[in-house]
Amino acid sequence: MLTKIIRIIAVLFAVIAAATVLPQLYYTTFPPEGRSSHKNICYSEILGDFIISEYIYSTDKKQATGQTVCYDRHGKSYSRDSVARLLLLDNVSQLAYEGRFPDTICGIAVTPELVSSEAFSQYHSAQPGLYYGLCELRDQKSYTTRTLEPRDLFRITPEGIQFIVCATNQIDEEKSRLFTNCLTAADFRFPALRMWTSPDKNISEAIGYYVIDSKNELYCLSMNQSVPAVQKLEKPDSRNIRNITFGKSPDIRAILNTENGNMYIQHPDQSYTRLELPDSLRKSGRLTGNLFYRIFTLPAPNQQTTFVFDRNFRLVDSCTLYFQPQPQNTAGIFGEFLFPFHIGQTAWEGFYADWSPVKRFLWLNLVLAGITLFYKRRNGYRLSNPFVITDILFVTIFGIYGLMGISAFPLKKSREEILNSQSPEL
Q1: Minimal CA–CA distance to 323: which of 308, 301, 294?
Q2: Neighbours of 106 (CB within 10 A)
Q3: Which of 172, 297, 318, 403 has its CA 20 to 30 A from that of 342?
Q4: What is the distance between the alpha carbons of residues 285 and 416, in angstroms, rounded to a whole number?
Q5: Among 261, 269, 257, 263, CA closest to 233
Q6: Is 220 helix (H, G, I), strand (E, B) or coil?
Q7: CA-to-CA distance for 286 and 122, rounded, in angstroms?
């Protein structure tokens, strides 16, 4: 019995492995057919309007060619040279190299170095990141943590904060007690529900961690010359915080998404500004900044909306690009018949399973289950055996993955099944 239960676990692992590898191999071998147009949108500080560039492929089947066309929302076309002069902040390197970069832009004295220093780009998401349980707390005085490998890692348990020394895998009782007492004095309630820090080492050292305690209150935990620093922070509204992304610009300390879909900018003085953006739940996007603007781009199925804010985060303009839905190709349709689901991984959500439409893969699954049933019966297995029924269910639910799993780990017959298959038919 134990052996057969272990076999079931092995089959499940085989299903997971197949669902991870096979679809990737298939779609790499049979990539999507056809070509589509590619659009990009920028905001011109000269025009005070958007300029859209679109790369359009040629319909000539003998030779694949294409061209880039540029136009504004009113349909007026621009040459590529004109676009460079209308998007000065986006073409600073090229214009400076050609000696065509101006001394002023919109009445503001500029240099290529100033414009380049103000430019940044980062991604953000309303989806909460993964919390792996053990984190590194860097010191604000970086000279105390110069080594590449951390001395210790910490976790926040229901009893308090624990620092585990990496070299010995032992808890540093003194340091843990010091930080626990500091958190308790700030009215922190253990354990921590979620924690965030910046992937940028310098920002992580300066700010530390934003931590949500068991009461859904927000705290900032940092360390200065090995001394704990804990500060309770005001939340932007009464809703729970869903995710936090730390900014790459001096005027943005963090971007906070709340459970009701609102997005807030936290400034260096810890005040908040609510952005005039649509519901951000289950969405990710990109934030770019330059000398004049902060630009949020939010994608959606077959469209993309760009919101332009000034440096005080007041909405200036917005524009939505619409994309032609691409017809599903033969390889994609066949893949949905062949694979019930595929397993992938993202930085925000970890592992996930993306299921195909049931009405497509169900038919192949039933055919494979019928073949499995015929094989079991033909080879002397009792169909009332619960492990035989389990194999058939594996194939019915997981299709080709289940068939590969039970084939890789064949089910051994019981003594009764062996005797029945060896007895001569009368």
Answers
A1: 301
A2: 12
A3: 297
A4: 62
A5: 269
A6: strand
A7: 6
